[in-house]
Amino acid sequence: MSAVLEKALLKAREAFHRNVTKDVNFRIKQLQQLKRCLNDNKEEFVKALNADFRKPRMEAVITEIDFVNKDIDYQLSHIRDFIKPKYAEKKGLSTFLDTCYIKHEPFGVVLIFSAWNYPIQLLLCPLIGAIAAGNCAIIKPSEISSNTEKMMAELLPRYLDRECYHIVTGGPEEATRMLNERFDLIFYTGSTAIGKVIYKSASKFLTPVVLELGGKSPVYMDDSINMEIAVRRLLWGKCMNGGQVCIAPDYLLCTKEVKEKFINVANKVLKEFFEGDSKNSESFARIINDKNFNRLQNLINSTNGKIVIGGDTDKETRYISPTIVTDVISADALMKEEIFGPILPIITIDSVEEAIEFIKRGEKPLTMYLFTNKKQVYQKFIDETSSGSLVVNETMLQMTVEELPFGGVGESGIGSYHGRFSFETFSHKKSVMIKDYNPIVEFLASVRYPPYNENKLKKLQMLVGHSIVDEINLGKFLRYFLTFSLGIIATITVFILNEKFL
Q1: Gap between the Cα atoms of 142 and 175, Å rounded
Q2: Where does the sequence pass through the membrane (predicted)?
Q3: Which end of the chain is more exposed for a tag (fewer CB within 10 A), N or C?
Q4: pTM of the model as a whole
């Protein structure tokens, strides 16, 4: 373990054991400080994102700065409600006078790994949940988006409590050292391959994990739609951040007729988006590094499909144009991995059923996009497929709805967050039951004690096997009420006799 990590862990554990983060006012102050950090340094963050991969200013502000600010505001507005105990409403006769509730308590010291493609959002949104729930945190930004990583390392310690929250920088070696240590929860955003490594490492300590991964998110499109609007929405989602988005549309399934219409409209839309020159457009990001550029270049060179739009590249600036490829089959290079770039393969299908079958043959995706106005069609996808989310006639915007959990299923992830779900993810739900020595309750529950017999068994089943709230059978209710009344009468009688003869 490096000296920096060792010191950070020691400080965080000591702070948590002193219950520093248990105070809701402390949590609120830290969230407010995090917001100040973003807003005080907004332009510097925008510049860092642009230096990393020429992220357009509008995308940097909306999808990074404003997105995180909105998440902070949500937690600040709801945190006092979130921390309130949630009382059990349905209890049986044996526990109806007991106090039973769920207490949300922090896990302890959590470890957060972020990804490079949204280096502010994907680092700070999990941290927001960790803070709101009362955890201490060690956070590891991605070294790939190096300019943003450097800013985070410099700025966060100036605004956040230095005992409870620590940022540790470095490459894969430092991440490996982290995984050799014991944490109370690990939150990771990134590739499925690395997610599996983290899952295995966490198993040594039975550490709970949240894995926000990816996959090939499909798009289905039919002829019932407004084609121009649908193409705009799809290509906006595909081209955002240069296609380097975990929920970006990965490939399109449609009939031959829809494909022809799509290509015609896509040509027009892309020219409008980037004013006929995506290479020099300030609205189109670059690929993050040479490794990812080369991977995407190889996909373009290896496909057996027909490139009908784009296909242009420039290694010096890591530019890859918005590219659409038709006549793609399932065995094609473009279908072997998540594309994570501005390349859209189109696979021709003949029916809804064929599209669903194609999707189901692959791993469960992080999201699924449907462009159709036919309710029976999108309902069929909802009922017959599995994905982290499913969106009809839109792309990407499911991320902005705080009341929807964001997360995958199967190989696209474990667990979810955003809004209340962030607080829930970083909280242990502790069951609490408080019982007193009420003689009536004790009399009713005395049938549980040995020696056992069939009569006691029947009475105990009646006591523990039914919820008072759910019980609607009048006959059974009357029997319960009679038993309860007899218990009260018996107890009062005992008290009177004791008073009379003592």
Answers
A1: 10
A2: 477-497
A3: C
A4: 0.91
Cα 188 from Cα 195, distance rounded (Å): 7
Active site residue 212: yes
* Tokens read off for 444: 């009713």
Of 37, 246, 254, 338, the catalytic one is 246
Q: At which residue do the structure tokens 């069951």 appear?
A: 431
In whole angstroms, what is the distance from residue 344 CA to residue 298 CA?
A: 15
Q: What is the radius of gyration, based on Cα positions, of the chain?
A: 29
Instruction: Reduce the DSSP state of residue 1 to 3 states and report it.
Output: coil
Classify domain 3-88+106-213+420-430 by CATH architecture: 3-Layer(aba) Sandwich (3.40)
| Beta carbons of 311 and 321 less than 8 angstroms apart | yes
Are 34 and 137 within 8 A, CB to CB?
no
* 209: β partners: 186
φ, ψ (nearest 5 deg) of residue 70: -65, -40
Question: Cβ contacts of residue 418 below 8 Å, gap of 6+?
Answer: 71, 125, 399, 402, 404, 405, 406
CA angle centred on 233, ends 228 and 239, rounded to 5° = 120
Helix/strand/coil for 240:
helix
What tokens does 218 get? 């499909």
From the candidates 149, 212, 338, 411, give the one annotated as an active-site residue. Answer: 212
Residue 178's SS3 state is helix
Q: Kindly list the domain boundaries of the chain, sorted by start residue.
A: 3-88+106-213+420-430, 218-400, 436-501
Each residue's pLDDT tens digit, 427-461:
999 999 999 998 888 888 899 999 999 999 988 88
218-400: same fold as 3-88+106-213+420-430?
A: no
Determine whether 272 is an active site residue. Answer: no
